[in-house]
Structures are given as C-alpha cells and as structure tokens.
Queue: 4 jobs
Job 1
Amino acid sequence: MLPPELRTATEALAEVDHLLVALDFDGTLAPFVGRPEDARALPGSAEALARLGGGDAPGSGPRTTTALLSGRHLESLRLVASPPEEVLLVGSHGAERYSPETGDEPLTLSGAQEALLAEVTAALRGVSEAFAGARLEHKPSGVVLHVRQCSPADGEAALARARTALAGERDVHVTEGKAVLEAAVVRVDKGVGLDWLRSVSGAGTVVFAGDDVTDEHAFSTLRPGDLGVKVGDGETSAAFRVGSLEDVTEFLNLLASVRTL
Ligand SMILES: [Mg+2]
C-alpha cells in the first residue's frame, strides 16, 4: 500500500514536461540474494520501468527518461538488470556511466590510483580470507568486502577489521552499506551520479528511489519539485517512504500510468 501523500505527489508528476526516473537496483528493484550475480528485478518493477521509458511518441522529445543508479560495477549491473538500450546507467556509485548518445564512459585510473588500488585490495583480501563467507568484489574504482553470507558476529568482526586496516589510507574513500564495505580510490558518490543523470538527460524534474545509506547522497541532491522515495527502514532525507519492494512496483506502475496517459 502506498502512503496517500506519495500517491498524490506521484499523480502530480503527470504534468511535468520531461521527467527523469532514476532507481537504485539492489534492495529497491531486486530483492537481496546470497550471490549478487543472482539478483533480478521483481518482474512487475521491470515491466513498469520499461513502460515508463518506452512511452515516447516517435519524433517528439523524451517525456520520461529512465535510469539505473547503482553501486555495482557497470558490467555486473547490466548482467543482472538486462536494461533496454534507452536506459541511462551509472555504476560504481557514479564512477562509470552510460548513455545511448555517448556510449560507455569507463573509468581510467592514474598510476598512483592503480598502486593504491592494489594495496587496498591486498588489505581487504587478508580480511576476507580470515572470515568464512566473506568475499571480495572487484570494481574499476575500488574493492568491496561483502559479509552477507557470514554469521552476524563474523560479519561485524570482518567489517571492524576492514575499517582498522583502511584507517591510515588517506586517499581511500570508504563507504559502508548493508553488510558491505567499499574502498574506492576515486571520490564519487550517488549524488555525483544523479547530478550527471540530471544533466545528461536534460530533465527538469527527477524521481529517485533507493534503500541504502549510500542512496542518501542522491536524495540530498534532490530539488523542490523532485520526488525521493526511501525503501524500508533507516534514517533518510527522502520526502517519502515505502515499506517493501512490492510497494516500489506499485509506485512505478502508478507513475507509468500517469506518465503515459
Ligand atoms: Mg540498494
């Protein structure tokens, strides 16, 4: 069930000329699963997103631009989300970008950043090898320690050891999410990613939905008239909140119907 105020605010978006709908993937469109590569969007959410992005009349400018804004490596995001070509993509929290016009904008690291990445990878490999169930994910921008498959006590201990291991690294940007710690050698966050999506799409109004602490950077860039939806519990600066991924499906269906009237 959507909160009535969210329903009203969504219906008001019918009037907007060009709307950007940017969505987090894991925990927003797709339920969390043990192996990140097995995550898939709820079918209803994927269909609503396709309807939102595919509704433009031929020859007219875009009325609704759709985008995915994820912490995942772009390649991994494509694998799990199978996005249609028109969907803008931001991966690695903003470090990797794709638009149909520009194609992929991959990340290139300086020599110093490459050396730092090797150092950080070695440090976190030591942590992951010490705890059963912990695993590393490698991205162009950094390395991620996943502890979702550890026991709760091991997960906490692994994250604590990782924090300690990285404490002295001045140029490493540590971001923590749900059962995950990311050490990046470039400074990006989802606010940077959403700003890029806003500018490349040319949309005047933005919708963003996300479930994690890393999504707060994106919520904080929203302007009057934009609409932010936090999924699940936790502090947020988003104006609206829904309780579940099924609610996200309902929200996207409502948005798709008001935008394609
Ligand atoms: Mg998420």
Job 2
Amino acid sequence: MPGAPAAGTELCRVDDIAEGTAKVFSFGDGKELFEMFVLRRPEGLFAYVNDCPHARSPLDWRPGEFLTLDKTLLLCTMHGARFTIEDGICVLGPCLGDSLTKVPVEVNDGVITVAG
Ligand code: FES
C-alpha cells in the first residue's frame, strides 16, 4: 500500500500502549498517507490499517478510540460497522463480511516492529 512502513520499522515500545488501548501511527502524507493502529490486549497485539472497508474512512472518532463500549469488538464510528478484534472481519454494519487490513507486527526486545 502507498505510504506503508517497510518491514523492520519500529513503532513504539509495547509499554507505550496501555493494555486495552490502541495507538495510531501515521506515515507519509497526502495521497500517500498511511495510517494504522495497534491495539494491545491481554491476549496479544492486533494491528490494522485505519481504513474502514465501507467508505474508506478512519475508524476512530477520537485518536486511539477503536472499541465498542463493551470492548469486545472494533467499531467504525462513521456508520457503526463492527469488526472482530482477532481477525478484523465485519460482523455488523454496512460492510458485513468485509475485513480490515491486517498489518503484520512483531515484538523485538520490547519494541513493536512492522514484520515482513
Ligand atoms: S465508513 Fe466505516 S461503517 Fe461506513
């Protein structure tokens, strides 16, 4: 994808994202703007492009706010689509069955890094 960070790009330390919250990362600008987020949960890290498959809008209404009130699903606040946290599949809303785009990440010495 245009503007996407190369494998090996360091994002932040795991400890920089409090458990249960997410952090947004932006690369490039203009038509090459690439925005992604990493959600930290007890079961691991989940990283997706911040781009809803319904209308290509960012999901978060405030930076880093990606979860439903009960914190069981990812939410696109533009039109209310809901996605599973584990695989980013839309389970409710106008893009039912579509998916968010995963960003592969790994942790090296406590640093979240874009994987190859
Ligand atoms: S842009 Fe996400 S539900 Fe419409």
Job 3
Amino acid sequence: MHTVTTPRVGTIEAIESKVRAGERLSFEDGVALFRHPDVIAVGQLANAVRERVHGDRTYFNRNMRIEVTNVCVASCLFCSFAKLEEGAPGAHTMSHEEAWQELRARLDDPPSEIHIVNGLHPGLPFAYYEELLAGFKRIKPDVHMKCFTAVEIHFFARHYGMTYGEVLERLRRAGLDSMPGGGAEIFHPEVRARISHDKATADEYLDVHRVAHGMGMRTNCTMLYGHIETFEHRVDHLLRLRALQDETGVDGGGFQAFIPLAFHPDGNGMRNLPAPTAIDALRTVAVSRLLLDNIPHIKAYWVSMTPEVAQIALRFGADDLDGTIVHETIYRAAGSRSPSGLTVDGLVRLIQEAGRVPVERDTLYNVVREHARAALPESALKVRDRNAKKHLEVMS
Ligand code: SF4
C-alpha cells in the first residue's frame, strides 16, 4: 500500500501543488521561491504557467524609445541618466522638432509605438508635453503613444497644480494612449527612502495607475531589483502590484505586463554594488510569473538583462521580449552592454532559437503577425556543421 504524504508548507513540492491546482501563492511562498537553491526547478514551474497561459507564443513589437529631457529635480541613487539642471554637462532637452525628427527619420520602417520617459524637468510648461504628443500624432496618426511614468504624472500634478485625472485627461486629449511602468523601483519604505526619497511614493505610484486604469487606460508595471533590497522586499513589491490588479484589472483592464528591471551600477550612487547575475535575473522572472497570477504578460526586457539572458528567460516564465527599441539611453548610461536596438529579424531569431513562436504585437497585444516556428532552420544547421568541420580540420 502506498503512503500518501502531504508536502511541507513552503517546499517546492507544496508550491508546485498549489500552482497545479491554480491556487494563489502567498508571501511565504514567494520568499521560499527566491531562496530555493534549485533555480531550474523554480524556472520549470514558472515555465509550466507560462505555457498554460501563452503556449509557445512570444511577443515583441516595433517600438522606439525617446527621452526628451534628462533634466531632473530628483536624486535617485541608482540613476545614471539624470542631470540636475539645464546647462549642466551632459544635460539635454529636445526641441519638439528634434523629437519629431526621430520619427520622421524612421517612416520607411515605422514603429507602431513611441515610448517616452523623461527626467522631472522643473522649467518646462505643461503645454510642451501636450504639443510633443500632438506633433507625433500629426506625423503618424496611428502611432501608439506610451508615455510618462507614474512618477512623471505625479510630478506634473504637483508642479502644474492638477489632479492625476486632470493631467491624464489633458495628455490623453493630446495623444497619450497608455503608460509605461517605470518609476516603481522597490515600494517598501525601508528601501525607497534610501534609493529614491524625493519622488512619488509607492502609494502615489500605485494611485496614478489606479486612476489611469479607472479611465480605461492600460499600463505596465516594473520592479528595479538587485541592489540593496531583500527577497522579502521583492515579494512585498510584487504583492502590492497584484493587489492593485485585483482591484482594477477586471474585465481585461489594468496592468498588461510586468517588467523586472535589473539594477546596473555604472555612474550612479550605488556604483560600489555588483550588478545582479544572470541566475538572479532568471529567478526573478520566474518568481514574478508565479506570484503575478493576474497580470497577463511577463517581459524579459532584453536591454536590462542582455538579449542572451532574455532569450533563456523565455523558458523561465517570460512571454515577451519588448521590442526593437532603437535608441535606449537610460541603461546605456548605467553601463549596460546590450545594443541600443534590435531588428525585427534579430528578435524573431532569438525567439525561434528558443523554440518559441514569435508574434509581432501592437502595444495592446493585438496580433500584427504570427511568424513560423523554426527551432533551428535546416539551412542554419548545415552552415553550423560546415563551420564545425572547417574548425576541426584547421585544428588537426
Ligand atoms: S530615476 Fe527618474 S526621477 Fe530618479 S533621478 Fe533618474 S530621471 Fe529623475
């Protein structure tokens, strides 16, 4: 006769039973997953959830990043991008024409999305941002404007004397379609007070998203990990996002995607810390997939974790690689060795070689084109065999 044993609470077996039964994971489960010595076991569990929700489909889009100003009144310890005032070495603020030219220059292969994030500039009129959006829409009326983090929206509200709703409504009238997820960092006050004390608090960040969701706007959310936070802080952060999504994500609204962002130490106030390792990046993707049971997509943001690690993350719970991006500068300022952009062919290859099906999407996850599955095309295998033979001959 077989003895039936119940797995101990917090063990990978107990967590696996909950995941298979579709039960929600607890704070303790999240911490146990971060601490579990076998990252492959954690990854396999997350991969099972990813495949249950998305199968082999892996999303990307054609997007373009623009940072119109790096002038910022805040002083986040991890930031290598901001300059305190206009005129400081390296400070820049684009004119409208300069910003619009970035799009005009790409109209032969246009992006479907423009993603704008900036510093908190104290000297620009609100009309600058409205006209910025309106101008992009005049050039390409169907381009999706995913702009301004919750931290920026909070700053606009304080600086120009409006409510979050008024700021978002005016920006929406000018062309805003959705919001990116930046600025979340780590919510827990023990960490936030030390790394970003002078910008929107956790509650303010969440409240901006709450208001945006209430207006029917879709947004993303993030977490900056791998610096001074503990695993408990990470889990606390993820569960706060999950709680807001419980509240606002009904009927297909709310957050679309969660993006874990790896800390990069170059040129900032935490330069003495090491960057998180690839294993930490993969584990964070996996635990995020397992805890955020109500957020549809987990992005392996290739700029933050390198295209190579992002490719592996597609087997650790991630179902999205972000996009072509074209001109990323924030991570490059912090020492990222990732390229500043990828081609569509490059993204398709990364996804196909991971054994997944590449799906080009728009910002709202409508399918633009589903590519073929091609784990490794016959021709690539032939070239690989030929090259290997040549190398063997040279070495013999
Ligand atoms: S992270 Fe954002 S808010 Fe903080 S200093 Fe940099 S640009 Fe400013």
Job 4
Amino acid sequence: MTLLKECVLATASKALFLDRDGVINVEKEYLYKIEEVAFVTGIFELCRHYQQQGYLIIIVTNQSGIARGMYTEEDFAQLSAWMQEAFAKEGITISAIYNCPHHPDFTGDCACRKPKPKMLLDAARQYGLDMAHSLLIGDSERDIEAAVAAGVGETVLLSSRVKSSKATRIVTELSCLY
Ligand SMILES: [Mg+2]
Ligand SMILES: [Zn+2]
C-alpha cells in the first residue's frame, strides 16, 4: 500500500504547455483588458481532453507590452487571475502561468523571452516534469524553438498560414487535437 503510493508520487508529471496569445485567446496586440478577451474555439475542450489524461496545464507567454509600457505587471496579473477563474468554471485547472515581461529594445536582453527555453525549464524543475512526454502548442515558431530547446517531445504549431516548421505537427484548428 505504502510502496504503491510512493511509486505513484515518484512518476514525473507531463505538461500541456500553452502559449497564450493566439492559442488561448484570439491574438490581439498588447491585450490586457478582460473585456477584450475572446477565447480561441476549442480551447476548453482541448484542455479538458489533456487534463483527463493527466497533463498539467501550464501557460508560457512573452509579454513585451510590459517592457513597452503598454500595461503593467499588475494588469497582467489581474488578467491572468481572471483567465484562471474562467478555466476553473469550465472544470480546468491552469497550474501555472509563466511570463517574460521583457523586450530587448526596451529592457535589454533577458534569459526568459521565447525562443529561449527558460520559462519551460523553470516549470520542468518546479513541477518535476517529464519533458519528453510533454506537449507544447504555440502559434509562432519561437514557441516551437523554445520547446525544442527545452526537450519537449511533441510540439504543435497552430497556424493556417505557415507551411513549414520545426514543430512535430501543424494544425489549423485546436479541434484537430482532441
Ligand atoms: Mg502567440
Ligand atoms: Zn524575459
């Protein structure tokens, strides 16, 4: 009994990593107002599908609007809390939201902005993730590059325009994935 429990606890979790803008909400430049959020079709179904299979859901997002002075860390935090609540109402737990508030032109180089893998690697350490069995969905090649650099096994580019990518799969709609 005790041994069994220890075995379960020792198993690393896998994650569904999601970019935010263009994957969770419809892309809108420098989004920070709750009333301007429109969820991407299928995002709740997708998350429920992976959550049921034991994936932790973790958001990794570049937020250069903070570096640019378009909105503040506090604005971002408020939108994030609202978004987590909206998912909770759909029965979905967003375990963590990692953000890079920098931009090289405004705040200099940083370690976290995608395509760098730091946000993903921080999550891997904090949640003890099995990256090879994790999945990332992004709408930009830099999301894919960050995931590849972090050792994420499966990468999906959500795009109706792009024809070639380092991603393991390109889909035009989230419904292709659940
Ligand atoms: Mg995006
Ligand atoms: Zn950064």
